[in-house]
């Protein structure tokens, strides 16, 4: 869904010109970094944690509903934000290409998955190879050469999907990273990159995470002079001639002495952003708006948590091939998992082990059972009651990526899922009889 249709720019301007509401660290954060968010299907918001993608909805009280594991986004190699075009059933995203440089790609929704991943054709950007004295020279005006120091980042959509905004580190830029856009010229061909604004927006500092609302309001983050520290979130109005007004920083309900970035609106209701400020649960956490009432600036209270909605699914532990012991990198998640499970004091949970699709079915069944038992034992070791756990093996019957070809795709299938199966214990026969007697009275 395009952001312009999710939220009217005028409504956002009223809120920006006033004061943003209180923000609190979402209770869905973990000690792992919550990586950038993007507007996705049916009004959901998607983000990445470790190697996995998740989506959530915005609750009526502007909180974060239950996280849902999103297999179709996992394994695409997406770095940063992505742009979702519902009308064309496409996504645009950045990932590392040749020479470790980030390029822009598109994928199409085909047969229930994001397939047909192609590098975007952008005029003036595609590298040309010239032969000179038996050597190959890459010539490009836009992409700055150097390992890991160039490319396209954090795309978002505008102009009904006919424009892609992004940040880039180009030789033609003003500073470390600037904001650019490309326009659709024909099917599969995009215009040369154009700077969003070289007077007020782009400068010697870093500008990143562009998001445009209603083609008239630009949000972005920058570490320019005057910030509270690190990246701060700014907004600027886009005038009819395409130039921008002088950016203004959001107030200290959003900006802090840490890095604050990646503003996203969910279903036209809640505003969310990412920050690595003190008081959160990890290196970078999602912060959610508790209210949109116009209130005076207040200090952020990161301990004010949102209520936990019903529903529970936790995906973790991508295992090595033919192994049932947990990778050390995922052990850090178990403490957060136990904490989340304990919020259902009478809940019972199913721990299901899974394998990739290679090998004999009976062997994979045993392997998946052992993976479930491994996680179950580690949870019990951390104090969770064993009688509220049910360990099962699903073998190779429920792959996230059915037609996995590459090793990273197979790895997504080698996992354990923890889901809530009973929220309240069943009544005993004695309790049922007592209730029946009360009913007769």
Fraction in helix:
10-25%
Number of strands: 28
Biggest beta sheet attributes: 6 strands, mixed
Low-confidence stretches: 1-23, 127-149, 290-310, 425-432, 435-441
Mean pLDDT: 76
Which class best fits the helix and strand makeup?
Answer: alpha+beta
Q: How would you classify the quaternary structure?
A: single chain
Strand content: 25-35%
- What general form does the structure show? globular
The N- to C-terminal Cα distance equals: 56 Å
Count of helical regions = 6
Describe this structure in words.
There is one protein chain. With 441 residues, the protein is α+β, with helices and mostly antiparallel strands. It has 6 helices and 28 strands. The chain has helices spanning 3-6, 9-17, 328-341, 361-381, 407-413, 429-440, and strands at residues 23-25, 34-39, 45-49, 52-56, 68-69, 79-85, 90-96, 102-110, 113-119, 121-122, 128-132, 135-139, 151-158, 163-169, 178-186, 189-190, 194-195, 207-213, 217-222, 232-237, 248-249, 260-266, 270-275, 285-289, 313-316, 348-353, 389-393, 416-422. The strands form 7 sheets. Strands 10, 13, 14, 15, 16 and 17 form a 6-stranded mixed β-sheet that branches. Helix 4 links the parallel strand 26 (348-353) and strand 27 (389-393). The chain is globular. It starts with a helix and ends with a helix.
């Amino acid at each position: 869904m395009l952001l312009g249709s999710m939220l009217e720019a005028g409504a956002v301007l009223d809120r920006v010109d006033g004061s943003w509401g209180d923000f609190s660290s979402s209770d869905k954060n973990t000690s792992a970094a919550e990586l950038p968010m993007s507007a996705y299907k049916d009004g959901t918001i998607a983000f990445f944690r470790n190697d996995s993608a998740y989506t959530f909805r915005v609750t009526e009280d502007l909180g974060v509903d239950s996280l849902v594991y999103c297999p179709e986004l996992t394994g695409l190699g997406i770095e940063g934000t992505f742009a979702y075009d519902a009308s064309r059933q496409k996504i645009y995203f950045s990932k590392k290409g040749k020479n470790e440089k980030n390029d822009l790609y598109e994928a199409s929704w085909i047969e229930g998955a994001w397939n047909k991943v192609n590098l975007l054709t952008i005029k003036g950007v595609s590298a040309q190879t010239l032969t000179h004295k038996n050597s190959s020279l890459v010539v490009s005006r836009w992409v700055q050469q150097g390992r890991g120091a160039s490319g396209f980042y954090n795309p978002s959509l505008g102009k009904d999907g006919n424009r892609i905004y992004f940040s880039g580190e180009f030789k033609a830029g003003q500073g470390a990273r600037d904001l650019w856009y490309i326009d659709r010229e024909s099917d599969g061909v995009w215009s040369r990159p154009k700077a969003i604004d070289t007077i007020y927006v782009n400068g010697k500092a870093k500008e990143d995470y562009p998001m445009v609302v209603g083609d008239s309001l630009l949000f972005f983050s920058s570490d320019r002079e005057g910030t509270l520290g690190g990246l701060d979130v700014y907004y600027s109005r886009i005038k009819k001639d395409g130039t921008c007004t002088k950016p203004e920083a959001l107030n200290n309900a959003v900006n802090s002495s840490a890095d604050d970035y990646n503003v996203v609106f969910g279903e036209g209701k809640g505003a969310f952003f990412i920050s690595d400020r003190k008081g959160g649960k990890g290196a970078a956490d999602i912060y959610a708006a508790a209210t949109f009432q116009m209130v005076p600036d207040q200090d952020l209270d990161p301990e004010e948590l949102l209520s936990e909605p019903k529903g529970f699914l936790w995906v973790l532990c991508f295992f090595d091939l033919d192994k049932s012991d947990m990778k050390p990198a995922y052990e850090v998640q178990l403490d957060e998992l136990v904490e989340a499970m304990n919020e259902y004091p009478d809940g019972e949970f199913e721990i299901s082990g899974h394998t990739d699709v290679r090998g004999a079915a009976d062997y994979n069944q045993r392997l998946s059972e052992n993976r479930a038992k491994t996680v179950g034992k580690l949870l019990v070791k951390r104090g969770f009651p064993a009688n509220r756990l049910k360990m099962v093996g699903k073998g190779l019957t429920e792959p996230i990526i059915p037609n996995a070809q590459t090793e990273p795709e197979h790895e997504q299938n080698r996992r354990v899922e923890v889901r809530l199966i009973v929220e309240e214990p069943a009544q005993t026969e004695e309790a049922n009889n007592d209730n029946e007697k009360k009913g007769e009275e």
